[in-house]
Amino acid sequence: MRRALPLRRRFVAVLAVSAAGLLTSLSLTATSASAHAPTSAPSGCASAGASKVGRIGGIDHAVSASTGCAAGHSSMVNVASDPAVGQPPLIYHGGPVMATRSTGPLVVTPIFWTPRGHTMDIAYGGIIDRYLKDVAEASGARTNVFSTLNEYFGSNGKARYAVDVRQPVIDTHALPADGCQVASTDASGIYADGSGYDACIDDAQVIAETEQIVTTRHLPRDYGHIYVTFLPKHVESCFAPGSTTDGATNACTINNQPTAAFCAYHSQDSNGMVYANMPFPVYHSGTHYTCGSEARGHKVIETPNGNPDADTEVSPTSHEIMEAATDPDVSTGWYDAAGFENGDECAYTYGTMQGTPGQLWNQVINGRHYLTQEEFSNIDFAKTGGGCLQGTIDEQP
Question: Do residues 243 and 250 make contact, with C-beta atoms less than 8 angstroms apart?
Answer without folding.
Answer: yes
